[in-house]
């Protein structure tokens, strides 16, 4: 089941309780470690606890499948039969899934058949066995998950048919051993890896000889989630400087109190004691002032005295103000797309320093087809080309290039 945004999530929950009137969220008094709870809502009424299918709710089915918490095997069968959702790698498969796989295996190709090897011949038998033994399904899946995480791909990238064709071309064992992962399996494996390494992170932070310094900042992901990255800077047992990302919580509101609460939750989850907390290096946003005050009030120190400023952020703002004035972005927007400059616009240019003027010229040339052709025509008439500068035999016109936010030009 794909991730849902906050507004859609509320709509789905309203739909759930429309179907299950008189029910409420479960108190979660019992174990919820089964993977099936990732695909079902946990609700209760009069002491009876049920699993209600999320995919049925998402698909707006007239009848929502539900099963008692003591009969989750039926839920697993339902997920496979109705939604083709398999059990994650390493988890117990449903009876329905096992039966389907048995049918598939009877007609499934083998390495010997794909490579046209006769296993009755010792040499070809050795080739087949060597080929099979060299493929490590777990290692392949781990590498695939690492690729998706490190390159910031969506989980559905693992289901890309062209990518799967490439895997099959490189090694038929990928498809023969069903090593490809679904988007759901990728998500589950990432959570598994996080939980597997979490205790190690707790131990490393606990054993750090000095204070733990924190930095956090927010951004919006491609699927419109408001996320906050929380980083920790510390020294390890050998006194080497280290840094680690300790959390990426979602903050629905950019209030300082909300941000501070999310940071506190991450610190508590990792067992960080108040006396281990050092300083917070943050940008100049006002909500960060409130966030560190909230954190300090909870952990027993004055947040204002622990709040540092990001020097790089300060330098960036100062440089833009010096070069382009107080509102560089608004100035660029005023000039964007103009085919010719009016007297008023030209006067705006005159107010800028030499670097600011050069930047504005580059920006305007880059967005105007007329000015781009004019720039090339000037080079043609004057005979000024890249070959005249570099003594190259190749005659090539120069282009105007911008880079970085500030947009310093190069030719």
UniProtKB/TrEMBL annotation:
It comes from the Eukaryota. Keywords: Metal-binding, Nucleus, Zinc, Zinc-finger. The keyword Cell inner membrane does not apply. This is Restless-like transposase. GO terms for cellular component: nucleus. GO terms for molecular function: zinc ion binding. It is found in: Nucleus. The keyword Transport does not apply. SUPFAM superfamilies: Ribonuclease H-like.
